[in-house]
Amino acid sequence: MKSSLLRSFFAPATALFAVAVLTTTHAATPVAAPAILRVGAVAPDFVMKNLAGAGVRLSDYKDKVVVLDFWATWCGPCIASFPHTQALAAKYKDQGVVVLVSGTSDTIAKFREWIPVNQPKYPDLVFTWDPNERDSATFAERASSKLYGVTGIPTQFVIGRDGKIAGVIVGNGGATDPRTEAALATAGIKVDAAIVAAADAKAKASAAAAAEKAKNPPPPFRESYGKLRAGDAIPDFAVITADGKPGKFSDFAKGKTVILDFWATWCGPCLQAMPHYQEISRRYADKNVVVLGVCSFDTREAYDKWVTANREKYTFPTVFDPIGKPASGDKAASAKTVMVQLTQGVMSPLPTTLVINSAGKFVGMYAGYSPATEQALANLLMIAGVEIAPADQPKRFYPAGSTVKPVAPKTQ
Questions:
Q1: In the chain, where are the structural domains located?
Q2: For a 10 Å CB count at each end of the chain, is N or C smaller?
Q3: Fold designation for 224-392
Q4: 362: β partners
Q5: Best CATH choice for the domain 3-215 from the list 2.30.42.10, 3.30.420.40, 3.40.30.10, 3.30.70.360
């Protein structure tokens, strides 16, 4: 999904910057990641690869100020940030700034496919990738996670000529985001004073918002989704089953509490969430809970290939959205997808997960996959009336209605 969708969908509730959340492993329960490296820490050197197959290291640029930018081909906010990052690379290259764009949490095949097509648009960015690709035996060794403690992308580290981190920038704040330039100024690069002042004001606002969130954490879920509201009946919709037959949502959902997960084979966080949903499916089958994965915005060929490879690994049902993957710009086809039909016009980032109670009514939703989304699922299942095992109890329970804004009284 494009980052514009991510920002527009979550704008009322959240972060100032669009970011795609990562998990550290493919384990059923996410493992706590190392803390993200802070300003002043020495930037660890590591090996990346480029299209020519050559090794690339930070130490190759020891006399430069390096902007190390972690990204992935599936990450909408990452791709959306590149025009701004390219503009900064061109603006400051004469002062010895190099932007090293290091791919992570993706497959090498995807990087080899994406980079040649898109690199001409970004001539001043040095494109590389971490050889510890997704789904490999060494995935946990990737530098973004093991060495830098990154849990969401895009994340940039501005590294001074002394090899120390001068700034950490998480998320895509758009074309006017001053944070990278302010960090460059800290590293000794000449930057307009007004830009540095703007970054300082943004940092103070962000710190104040973080302090308030820590004091009064918001619910990790929403009780509205497009035009859907908690308590609304979920309309039936057509699907294609894993064995290629026509089916309906009601075939899987009637009388059950449903965890309806929109996912795609190309979506890294979606695949990382699968082991957790398998475990939930196994543990709560006797509670009349079913996980139903709807493969969306994807090709039938990719879905069939995934089903063949994972049929024994994941036993909860998955189905395919009959619309498949709409062509770029095909608004008519996009409007017919299951997601957009349910929401009556809204797309959200994958994975997006809905909980529907045994009466067939919408309870709530969340997007992404992380420890926070596991908390969201536990809350929504409890609201739906499912008895949750002690080990799965959320840290904090938010009752139904927690995300509904009170209506202001009418004035006479």
A1: 3-215, 224-392
A2: C
A3: Glutaredoxin (3.40.30)
A4: 356
A5: 3.40.30.10
296: amino acid identity, one letter? S
- Residue 128 CA to residue 68 CA, distance in Å, equals 11
Residues linked to residue 20 through DSSP beta bridges, in sequence order = 153
Q: Which two tokens stand for residue 198?
A: 């703007």
Complete DSSP assignment for 131-167: SS-TTSTTGGG-HHHHTT---EESEEEEE-TTSBEEE
Residue (of 194, 170, 164) closest to 182 by Cα position = 194
Using CA atoms, how far apart are residues 136 and 107, in angstroms rounded to an integer? 9
Burial degree of 128 (CB within 10 A; 0-12, 13-18, 19+) = buried
Residue of 185, 179, 181, 189 lying closest to 95 (CA atoms): 189
* Residue-level pLDDT, tens digit, the chain, 412 residues: 333 333 333 333 333 456 665 643 333 334 445 789 999 999 999 999 999 999 999 999 999 999 999 999 989 899 999 999 999 999 999 999 999 999 999 999 999 999 999 999 999 999 999 999 987 889 889 999 999 999 889 999 999 999 999 999 999 888 899 999 999 999 999 999 999 999 899 889 888 888 887 788 889 999 999 999 999 999 999 999 999 999 999 999 999 999 999 999 989 889 999 999 999 999 999 999 999 999 999 999 999 999 999 999 999 999 999 999 998 778 899 999 999 999 999 888 899 999 999 999 999 999 999 888 999 999 999 999 999 999 999 999 999 999 977 545 555 4
Helix, coil or strand: residue 403: coil
